[in-house]
Amino acid sequence: MVNGAAPLLELEGVKKYFPVTKGLIMMKTVGHVQAVDGISFTIKQGETLGLVGESGCGKTTTSKMILRLEVPTEGRVLVEGKDIQDFKGEELRDYRTMVQAVFQDPWSSLSPRMRVKDIIAEALVVNRKVSSEEVNDRVHEVMNQVGLHTDQAKNYPHEFSGGQRQRIAVASALVSYPKLIVLDEPVSALDVSIRAQVMNLLKDLQGEYDVGYLLIAHNLATVRYMAHQTAVMYLGQVVEYSDTEELYQNPLHPYTKALFSAALPSHPDMVREEIVLTGEVPSPINPPSGCRFHPRCPFAMDKCSEEAPVEKEVAPGHRVSCHLY
Amino acid sequence: MAAAQGEVILEVNDLRTYFYTRTSVVKAVDGISFNLRQGETLGIVGESGCGKTMTALSLLRLVPKPAGRIVGGEILLHGEDLVQKSEAEMRQVRGQKISMILQDPQTSLNPVFNIGNQLMESLALTHKEGRKNLLQRAVDSLRQVNVAAPERRLEDFPHQMSGGMKQRVVGAIAMSLEPDIIIADEPTTALDVTIQLQYLRLLKDIQARTGLAIIFITHDFGVVARMCDRVAVMYAGHIVEHGSVRDLFNDPQHPYTQALMDSVPKLEEKVDRLYSIEGQPPLLWDLPEGCLFAERCPHARDKCQEYPPTFPIKEGHTADCWRLDPSW
Amino acid sequence: MAIVALPKRGFIDSLPGGPAVTQGLAWARRYPLLPGFVLLFVLVIPAIFANQIAPHDHRIGDLDLVKRPPAWIGDKIAEQTVVQKQDRRVARQGEITLSSATRRMKRGTATFLEGGGDGTVDVGDKLRVVIRQGGTWTYPLGTDKQGRDILSRIIHGSRVSLTVSVLAIALGGGLGVILGLLAAYKGGITDTLIMRLVDIKLAFPSILLALVLVAAWKPGLLTVIIVISVLLWARYARVVRGEAMAIMNRDFIDRAQVAGASNFRIMARHIFPNLMNTAVVLATLEVGHVIILESTLSFLGAGIPRPTPAWGVMVADGRELIVAAWWIFFFPCVAIVLTVLSMNLLGDWLRDKLDPKLRNI
C-alpha cells in the first residue's frame, strides 16, 4: 500500500437496521432487524477480502451498502477516503465506474431483453461520454479478456450457458475500468467444473489490473483459494478477521472453528473433530444479549451472556471478538 | 464409517431413459448399471445435465410423460422389476419401498397446509388408523429427525420454519412410511454449512438405526467423502467410473473423475492455481461418437472415437476408459 | 407421435357425442391459429377493404325491399278468407280484409284459391296470400327496415369495431402501462396514489361510468374511444404494476443501478421490455372486451351515432323487430360473438405461448 494513500475501501462502524412495523393503519415501528451491527474492515488496492458467513449474517446487506443500493443507518463507507453517501453528479459517476459487482445467479443477473453488448457496455455508456466506436472497442476488449467470442456480442443472454453468463457479468463489471468489484457468491450457482474456470479468470484479472475484490462466499475452500484477507461474520457482526492463511492455520473464534469443522472433508479418511452447533441461527430482530453467539457456543461462560466482547488484536493483523481471548 | 452392509436390495441393469422431442432424441440416461445393498450409501456424482436426477426419477418411474420413457434395462427391487410394474403397483412402491428427498425445501412442502397435515397425509396412505394414532405417528416421525418439541411443531406452517427445519420435515415425511431406500437429490445444497452438517449426521444416524439404504445424488465431493460407501460418477448419461469411496479418492482412473477432483479447491491446502476442464459438457441431443469425454480429455487418442467398454480396475472398481485397456 | 397429452382416452369418448368432441379437441390443437383466421376474415379484412367487399351501399336502402329476410328463406304463405272489415277490428288469423286483399291482388302478392272466377275480390273468396316476402341472393343476409343490405352494414360495422379496439387499447393500455410502471418503480406515495385511483375506477360499474362520460361530451367516434380508454387503463395498471414489481426483484435491476443507470433508463430499457409479453397478451384479451363495450354503448345510444353501422347500433335497431324480422337483430350479434370469441381464443393461445403466468385472467 502506498504510504499515506487511503485504502481502496474502508468501512467504519457500519450499521444497517431495518424497521419492523406493525399495524395496518398506524404503522408503528415495533423493532428493528439488526442486519448489520457495527462492522469495520478495509480492502487495499489489488487485494481480495473474503466475507464468510451463513444466511442472515448480514454479508449481502453489507455488499449492498458498499454498492450504494442501501444507505447505512450509522457509520461510513469510504472509497479512497471519501464517504460514498456524499457523492453527487460527477463524483457519483466516477464512483459508479470505480465500484462494480458480479452477482450470484447467472440466470437473473442479466437483462433478458438486452443484447449482450449493450449489457456489457452499460456502465461505460451511462457514466462517460464516449463515442460508439470507443464503446465497441472496449466491449470487444473485455469480451476477449473473459474468454468470450466477440461475434457473440449481438446475442441475447438466454443463448449462453451458466458459465458463459457469469463471464458476461464479469465483462460488464470490467468495462468501466473498476478499482473494486463486489463478487457475491460468483460461482455457487455454477457447475463444479466451470467454477474453476471462472475463479481462475478472476484471479488472472486481479493480477493484471490490480483490481480489489470483496468476495462473499459461504464455501471456505473458495475463499482460501482467492482471498488475501478473510472476515467471518455472524448475525451482523465481524467475529474474526485475519490474513487468510493465518485464519486457516489458526482459527480462534468458536464460530469460525465450527464453520471449519462443518466444512466437509476432502477425503473419506480425513477425520475431523466435528463441532456441531446446537439450535438455529437466532433472529436478527432480537439478537441474544452480550456475545451474540453465546446460546450456541460450546465454550460459553457466564460472562458471555452479560457482556459483549471487545475486538482484540491477538496476533498481528488477526482480530477476534471473544471472551476467550 | 460404513454400517454393516447387507444383501443387495436394488439392482439396476443397463437402464436407459430417453426423451423424445419433435426433432431429436435426448438420451438422458444411456445404459447405467449399479447395485445397492442394505444399509449402504451410494453416491451418484456428476454435474448438471449428466442424468443423475433422471436416474432417480426413473427408479421411481416418475419420468415426465409423454416425452420421456424408460426404453430399456431393468430395475430389480428385491428381485422384482419395477420397469414392468403397472402404475397402481408403483404407487405401492413409492413412499413405502423407495422414497425421495428433493433439493429445494421451499417447494417440497405445500405452503397452505401445516406440517402435521402433510405428515399425516403421507402416513394415512398405509396406516388406516384413526386421527389420534396418526397424530402420534406424526410426532414420532418428527422426533426421529431430531425436531425439538415435536407436538408443538405440528401446527407450524412451512413459512414459519427455517430451511434446515424444512428439510428435516421433508425427511420425516419421506421416512414416515419406513422405506427401504431413500433417494436424496442434493438435499443440502440450499442449506447453510453448519446446518448441512447437522442434517448429514442425522441421515447417517437414521441409517445406523434402521438399516436404510441411501442413494445420494450430489455434485459435492465433500458430501461424497463424508457420506458415501460407494460412488458412481456420471457424465452425459453414462456411469464413467464406479467404485468404493476410497477407490475413488485414492485412485481415480477416469480422466473426468480426476479432472473434476482436481478442479475443486480443498480447504486443507493452498494452491496457486486450480485445474480447470476445457470446454463444456456435450449437448444431450447431439452426442459425439465414441467416448463422450474425449473432446475435453487431455489423454484422448484415436481409439477414443469408439465408445470404451467397462474395464475392471480391481474388485468393485470399474471405469469406462480406453487407458485401462492393456494395449493402450 | 402425440406431443401433447390428451385427457385419458376413453373417458370423453364414452360420453354421448364424445368421439366428436375428442376429434374437435385434437383438431383444435393442431390448428391453434384457426381463431386467428376467423378473426382475420370477420374483422380485419372487411374492415380494411369494406368499400371493395360490401355488395351494396350501406347507407342507402331500397324502399321496395324493406325488411326482406335472408336469402335462403322463402316466401311465407297463408290461406286466408276475405272478410268484410268491421269497424276498427283487425282481421283474425286466416282472414284478410277486403281492402288489403284488393291491394295485395294488385301488387301480385295474393292469388285466388277459390272464387276467382269473376275476376274481382269479394267477401268469401279464399286467397293464397304471401304474408311475408322471401329473400333474394342479392341481399344475402336480408335488409333492414330502411331496405339497407345487412351484410354490407355488417362489413362496414367491422371498421368501427376495429378502429375503436385498436385506438382504445393503444390509449388505455399505454396509459395503464406507464402508470403501472411508475407505481411499481417509485413506490411509496406515487404507488399508493396510483393504486387508489385504480381502486376507485374499478369500483364504478363500467357502463354507468361510460354513460356519464358520454353525456358530458357529445357522442361520436372520438368520444367512444376516449371513454373506453378510461375504462381500460385501470386493469392494465394493476397487472403491469404486479409484473414490474416481480421483475424489479431480479438481480439485473440491481446490476443496472450499480452501473449507474438513471431511473428512466432502468424503467425504459430494463423493466419495460420485459413487460411487453404481458402487455401484448393483455391487449389481445381486451379486444373482445372493448368490442362488447362499444356495442353496448351503441346499443344504449351512447356510442357511435347513426347512420354509422356500428354493430351495437344494428342490434338496437333490430330489437323492436325481433319477432317479425329477426335477422336484423341476429346477424350483428353473430358478428360480435364470432369476433370476440376468436379474439379470446387467440389471446389464450398467445398467452400460453408468451406468458403462462397470466392463466387466471
Q: Could you describe the 3D structure shown?
A:
Chain A contains 10 helices and 12 strands. Chain A has 325 residues and is of the alpha/beta class. In chain A, strands 6-7-8-3-9-10-12-11 form an 8-stranded mixed β-sheet, with helices on both faces. In chain A, β9 (229-234) and β10 (237-243) form a beta hairpin. In chain A, α2 (89-98) runs antiparallel to α3 (116-127), α3 packs across α4 and α4 (132-146) packs across α5 (162-174). Chain A is globular. Chain B has 328 residues and is α/β, with parallel strands linked by helices. In chain B, 30% of the residues lie in helices and 24% in strands. Chain B is built from 11 helices and 12 strands. In chain B, the strands form 2 sheets. An 8-stranded mixed β-sheet of chain B has the order 6-7-8-3-9-10-12-11, with helices on both faces. In chain B, β1 and β2 form a beta hairpin. In chain B, α4 (115-124) packs across α5 (131-144). The radius of gyration of chain B is 21 Å and the shape is globular. With 361 residues, chain C is of the alpha+beta class. Chain C has 13 helices and 4 strands. Chain C has helices spanning 11-14, 18-30, 34-48, 50-53, 98-107, 150-186, 188-203, 206-216, 221-248, 251-258, 263-299, 311-319, 327-354, and strands at residues 76-83, 95-97, 110-114, 126-132. Chains in contact: A-B, A-C, B-C. Chain A binds chain B through residues 54-55, 161, 163, 191-193, 195-197, 199-200, 203, 218-222, 224-225, 245, 248, 258-270, 274, 276-277, 280-281, and chain B through 1, 47-48, 162-165, 192-198, 200-201, 219-226, 228, 245-246, 249, 259-260, 263-268, 270-271, 273-277, 280-281.
Largest pleated sheet of chain C: 4 strands, mixed
Shape label of chain C: elongated
Q: Helix coverage percent of residues of chain A?
A: 25-40%
Strand count, sense and closure of the main sheet of chain A? Answer: 8 strands, mixed
Supply the helix-strand structural class of chain A.
alpha/beta
The dominant shape of chain A is globular
